[in-house]
Every structure is written in C-alpha cells, then in structure tokens.
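Q: what sequence does this backbone want?
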C-alpha cells in the first residue's frame, strides 16, 4: 500500500543521510503495517528535484510503487530530471538505481565518509515507469 507524509520522510532520513523539513515530500510502500521502502524529494528547483531512498526489503515492493515515485516528480512537479546521490561504497543502491533506469551523471571525490559520491540522473525521456500502466 502506498503511504505518504512526514513520518515516511523521516523514516528515509534515518538511513539516507538527508534531513526532513516542510518543503520535502515522501512516498512509501507499506506491507503488513510496516514501511519497507520509501523515497523523499528535496531540493526542488523547477527543472530538477533530488530523490533520497531507503529500501529495506526490495522483494516486497510493487511496480505500482515505482510508478508512483516517478509519477510525482515528472507529472506533478513537471521536472525534467531527478537526481540521486549514492556512496561509491553502497553497491546495492548503485545496482538498484541502475536497474530502475538511473544513469551516472557525475563522480564526486570524498563526498561521503565511506566513499566518493556518485550522482545519478533520471530524465523524463528515459523513464520507463511514467508510461507504464500494467503491473
């Protein structure tokens, strides 16, 4: 079930190294009353927004959640691109970002305490999730 709100955003922040404030939005996926995945949006500039994610159990996520997390920035905020920063030490996050369609945009040395920062980008034209209707 899709859930939204501050509690969802704060759940993301516990692990993703971001900070919730009243300009942020969050979308989560809940199974059996427990959040198993969520994203938080921050740094909206008009053409772009940052996305932070936390996924505790990738196998419990529905395709409808993926459609929702890309529908919000592309169709409601009308951004051209979503950006996500991932530590070079976090191989699981890199694999997931690339699997859903993010591309590496930049590599920033010494960004995180545990490694470099990899800036990923998802552009509207490359997003397979916003046109998908089934699943």
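A:
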């Amino acid at each position: 079930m899709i859930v939204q709100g501050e509690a969802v955003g704060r759940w993301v922040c516990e692990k993703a190294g971001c900070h919730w404030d009243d300009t942020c939005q969050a979308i989560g996926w809940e199974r059996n009353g427990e959040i198993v995945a969520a994203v938080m949006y921050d740094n909206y500039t008009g053409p772009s927004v940052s996305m932070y994610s936390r996924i505790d159990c990738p196998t419990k996520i529905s395709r409808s959640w993926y459609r929702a997390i890309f529908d919000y920035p592309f169709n409601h905020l009308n951004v051209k691109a979503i950006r996500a920063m991932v530590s070079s030490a976090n191989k699981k996050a890199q694999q997931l970002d690339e699997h859903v369609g993010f591309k590496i945009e930049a590599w920033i040395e010494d960004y995180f305490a545990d490694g470099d920062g990899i800036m990923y980008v998802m552009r509207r034209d490359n997003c397979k999730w916003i046109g998908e209707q089934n699943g």
